[in-house]
Amino acid sequence: MKADNIKNIISDIDHLPYRAILFDGTWGIGKSYAVNEALEANPNVCKISMFGLKDTRQIYHEALFQLALKNNIGGKIGEIANNILDGASKIWDKVGQAKEAVQSIVNEREMFLLLSKEFTSVHIIVIDDLERMSDDINLEDIFGIIEELKQCNYVKVIVIANTDEIQSDKKVVFEKYNEKVIERIYHITERAEKVTWSKMNIHADFVEKFLEIHKVKNLRTLEKAQRFFEDVKLFCNSDMSEQFKEELRLICFAVVVESIENLYYKEIDSDNTDSVEKMTNTIGNMLQHRIGRYLYGIKCSTNLVEMILKYYEEGVLNEEQLEAEYKLFLNSGDKPNYYKSDEEIRSVLPILREKMLEAKSLAELNEFADAYVVWSDVLEENNESVLSEYRNILEEMLEKTVLDGKEEMLSYSYDLFHMSSEKTKRIYQEENKETMKFLIETYVGYLKKTTHGKKAYEYSYKLRNNFDSSYYHDIIIPEIDNLYNKISFPVDNVDEDRYHTCYNIMYVLYHSDAEKFLQYCEKIKEDCDNMSRHRIDVLIEEIVKK
After folding, report:
1. Is residue 192 within 8 Å of 4, Cβ to Cβ?
2. How far, in Å, CA of 394 to CA of 365, rounded?
3. Which of 116, 329, 335, 498 shows a CA-CA span of 20 to 30 A to 323?
4. Smallest Cα–Cα separation from 371: which of 386, 385, 352?
5. Which part of the chain is the KAP NTPase domain (predicted)?
6. Residue 359 vs residues 303, 353, 366, 401: alpha-carbon distances, Å
7. How do residues 216-268 score in pLDDT, each as one tens digit?
8. Distance CA 72, CA 219 (A)
């Protein structure tokens, strides 16, 4: 059921045979929004959120003051309340003291139950956020109150909840009593088709076009995206164009929506996916790539997108950088580079070089370097100095990537970066291979010195995995001889980590040259104790089987 139907149900609530109903659905789908909108003109409504409520008696307190007394102090119900206090005061000598005493004694529950007898039209009590109730509150008590409220004259109860999120111990109580207390459950599974976006301060035309493409169900996510855009807009100068701000809004919505909803994240079936497809899916699942699905055709740069994402994640945004991005936006013009004149392209080249030098990611670096080389080649201009700069930055960036533990990026082909120039492709391949070699030399150099500890195990594990990869196999083979030493085998001081490290090294040695490996094992065993020989034999048997 769509959330729109909530309004229709509530508009007919006076005539429905139910005294207690439940709107059940996932967070943010618009249940509370639709209920509030349907009841906004109704003065006989009490709204209570269970979130933060510490005592179930507060329900009667809110019902008493929001329904029985709020609009009736001067009327019949107010007179009845005063008569109760006046009658009780006769027990005492002083009326003032009696009223004070009675007010502290008279139970708000009993007062509400008594005063509700004077209701002549339907009064609605909305109990929201049932799943967020305090651990100290007993759900059975809540159901008891709802059941009692149902018996009141002209009182109906609307409960709003996401029952999937009710705590497991309370879920048992819910399953036990809900059929007795709740007379009808409406399951809300789809966001409202028609939403008054202006009440959420969201531009209707923008968000409706956005939702035609990106199927966001959670209204709260859209509210968060709008607030984030309003936050970012504070950094904009008043003279910035509306087109720039429109693209900025789209970037903000893309960053927030994809970060929360993961609409374009694709689960990878590792059992039924080949390595190339798995790597492609892994790249596609990177947040930056997923955000790009929202931004096809915009003029703003990927660098601005990175800036906005960083601000969302870390709260850091530089106004000068934003201003610089705006100038690049203006300079980029409406005309694609393909249709520009020589002079127009010449004016773009320094901008591309500057963006290349300031690139924060491999994707940015390759994008701007490739674009510079492509267009400078068309103009037949010398670009060797820029290619040299590209090579140096690429070398540093790739080395930092592997030192940060992200060596899987070395298996990315230049095709994944949509590079066009054969010059940049060649440099990328050369530097990528050099970085792979640097990585393997790092692993082997460390393992040559020690096979103790977590780091040694981590390096040996990666070395073994990379050995079976076509990207690394030929790079590893020349380094193998460095691992032919006693510490590569489970002898002398052995613990569990070192045992597994030796297994990984022995696996690589065997699969690179089985005959040489087995001969070396026999030589090692000559100087070992019995337990060391036994461990070596066990690992050999296991490795050969595989």
Report:
1. yes
2. 8
3. 335
4. 352
5. 3-182
6. 7, 10, 9, 14
7. 888 889 999 999 999 999 999 888 999 899 999 999 999 999 999 998 888 87
8. 36
